Structure formats: structure tokens, C-alpha cells
């Protein structure tokens, strides 16, 4: 299978993709392979695999994308981060992906290690990595974006300028960081078009189903907590079953609103819980 994600966007009116993370270095693959299989049964448009916490674990990423695409027949999108990586390391990863028939890459700078304020890798920015990827093969390359603006960007306008550089270097689609207020995404997409960025935008949806996730998620994403979502958390966080149901309902409503307003590419951050993704997709069975 050599399907490129940009071709998937052209073929399907609505796409739904799922994101997984690989096992930690040294851990086995039995559990993640089971998760991949369960997610594949949902027939997503494609599945992406992150590099694990802190941007490490590229070898494990390769093993999981092989399971996604080679074993389960779902187009795979491999994350590749350049934080702390040298040119030779990136070249090896690209060669390994090419050898396995993986032609879709999500190119990211990656999260800086705690206490580090500057990328020490050969490629300082994701745009540098994107340019390098295109020199090393016929890859379809995506990039990340923050609807509220990247937390390290001086201004929203500067953040858009940086995204334009990514696109000019060959970024063919953008996937958003999680957000919980659709109006923020709509405003962001308007700013993209106003600045000449017209690549497909994939809306990243995080179903928050566990009270323990909440503080960490909002800290990592930098996303503001909408009053409506805060009320749900305040009311149901002490009741795990109710919080799970409310979180799935909130994510479902977000997706319905997005599709109704013409945002047809949806990406679900599964947290390796296929049952959560299944519940959402069951709720939308007549829409997808």
C-alpha cells in the first residue's frame, strides 16, 4: 500500500483518522499490536503513530507503523521529530520508512526536554526537517499547528508566518493540536486563508474521559478551558463512568459541529483506547 494522505483527502468527503503512541523503549509490542488491530476494525482513513513521550522512540514508531500498514492494511502516518536528532539519525529513519513502504510523515520539531529552551538537533525547526524529507524521497509530509497559536510564538501573526514557511518548504497538510472550542478553529482557518495557506487542515479532537487527564491536557496543549467544558468537568469528574460518557458526548458534538461547518478531516487522539474511538464513531455512524 503506497496511499498518500493527500490522495485520501481528495477521495473522501469526510475522513476520520486515529492517533496512537508506541510502547516505551524496552516494552513489548503485544498490547499495542492488539490496540492497532482494534482500531483498524473501525476502518479509519489512516492511522498516525507518534514518537512517544519527549520525542523519543523512533524505532518503536517504525515497528507500529509496520503493524498499521503492513499487517492491518491501513495507511500509516509516521511521526518524525527533529528535536535533539542529528542529520544521520534522520537520514536513517527516512531510509527505514522508505524500505517499509511508508510514504507519509508528520514532521515536527517535538517537545523540548524539561529545562531545555532551545533545540540542539541538526534541524532547528520543523520547516528545516520538512525540506530535508523532500530531498530524501517522494514522501507526503504533514505538519502540526496550534489553533490558539504556538505557545512559543511571540504573536498570533508570527505563528501564522512560521506556518507559511512550513508550507512553502513542502508541508502538504496541517493537523491541529487538540482544542475544545470550535470557534477558535474557525477563526484560525480564516487567518490561514487570509495569509495564503490553503493546504488541508485536519482537526485534532481529544476526548477527555478521565479526570486525571484534564489538568495535564490543558497544561500541554495551552488550550483555554471553555466554560461549557469546565462545567462538565466540575460536575462529573468525581464519577468516572459519568465523566467518560460526558467526555465522549462532548467530543461527538464537537465533531458534528465541525462537519456541519465544512471541516471534513477529523483526527481523534485515542490515547491508545480503541473503545473510546469506537464509541465516538458509533455515535456518528450515519454521518461518516
Please give a structural write-up.
With 288 residues, the chain is of the alpha/beta class. It contains eleven helices and eight strands. Strands 1-2-3-4-5-6-7-8 form an eight-stranded parallel β-barrel, surrounded by seven helices. Strand 2, helix 3 (58-71) and strand 3 form a beta-alpha-beta unit. Helix 9 (227-236) packs antiparallel against helix 10 (240-260) and helix 10 packs across helix 11 (274-283). The radius of gyration is 18 Å and the shape is globular.
Strand order of the largest sheet: 1-2-3-4-5-6-7-8
| Helix and strand sequence | HEHEHEHEHEHEHEHHHEH
Report, as a whole number of angstroms, the end-to-end distance. Answer: 23 Å
CA radius of gyration is 18 Å
Structural category is alpha/beta
The share of residues in helices is: 40-55%
Binned strand content: 5-15%
* Count of individual helical segments: 11
Largest sheet: 8 strands, parallel, barrel
Low-confidence stretches: none
Outline of this structure?
By secondary structure, the protein is of the alpha/beta class. It is built from eleven helices and eight strands.
Provide the fold topology.
Blueprint: H1 5-11, E1 15-20, H2 30-40, E2 46-49, H3 58-71, E3 76-81, H4 87-99, E4 104-108, H5 126-135, E5 140-145, H6 156-168, E6 173-176, H7 182-194, E7 201-205, H8 211-221, H9 227-236, H10 240-260, E8 265-269, H11 274-283
Helix pairs in contact: 2-11, 5-6, 9-10, 10-11
Could you name the key traits of this structure?
single chain; 11 helices; 288 residues; 8 strands; alpha/beta; eight-stranded parallel barrel
Amino acid at each position: 500500500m503506497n496511499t498518500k494522505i493527500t490522495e485520501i483527502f481528495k477521495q473522501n468527503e469526510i475522513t476520520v483518522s486515529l492517533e496512537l503512541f508506541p510502547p516505551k523503549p524496552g516494552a513489548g509490542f503485544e498490547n499495542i499490536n492488539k490496540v492497532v488491530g482494534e482500531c483498524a476494525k473501525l476502518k479509519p482513513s489512516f492511522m498516525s503513530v507518534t514518537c512517544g513521550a519527549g520525542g523519543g522512540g523512533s524505532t518503536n514508531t517504525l515497528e507500529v507503523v509496520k503493524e498499521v500498514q503492513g499487517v492491518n492494511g491501513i495507511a500509516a502516518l509516521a511521526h518524525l521529530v527533529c528535536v535533539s536528532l542529528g542529520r544521520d539519525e534522520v537520514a536513517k529513519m527516512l531510509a527505514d520508512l522508505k524500505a517499509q513502504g511508508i510514504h507519509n510523515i508528520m514532521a515536527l520539531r517535538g517537545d523540548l526536554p524539561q529545562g531545555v529552551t532551545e533545540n540542539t538537533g541538526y534541524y532547528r525547526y520543523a520547516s528545516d526537517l520538512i525540506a530535508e524529507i523532500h530531498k530524501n524521497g517522494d514522501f507526503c509530509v504533514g505538519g502540526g499547528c496550534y489553533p490558539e497559536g504556538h505557545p512559543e510564538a511571540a504573536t498570533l501573526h508570527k505563528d501564522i508566518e512560521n506556518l507559511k514557511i512550513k508550507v512553502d518548504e513542502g508541508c502538504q497538510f496541517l493537523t491541529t493540536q487538540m482544542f475544545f472550542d470550535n470557534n477558535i478553529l474557525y477563526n484560525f482557518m480564516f487567518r490561514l486563508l487570509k495569509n495564503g495557506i490553503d493546504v488541508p487542515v485536519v482537526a485534532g479532537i481529544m476526548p477527555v474521559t478521565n479526570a486525571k487527564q484534564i489538568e495535564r491536557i490543558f497544561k500541554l496543549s495551552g488550550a483555554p478551558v471553555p466554560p461549557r467544558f469546565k462545567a462538565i468537568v466540575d460536575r462529573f469528574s468525581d464519577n468516572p463512568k459519568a465523566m467518560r460518557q460526558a467526555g465522549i458526548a462532548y467530543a461527538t458534538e464537537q465533531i458534528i459541529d465541525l462537519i456541519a461547518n465544512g471541516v471534513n478531516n477529523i483526527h481523534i487522539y485515542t490515547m491508545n483506547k480503541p473503545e473510546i474511538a469506537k464509541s465516538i464513531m458509533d455515535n456518528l455512524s450515519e454521518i461518516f
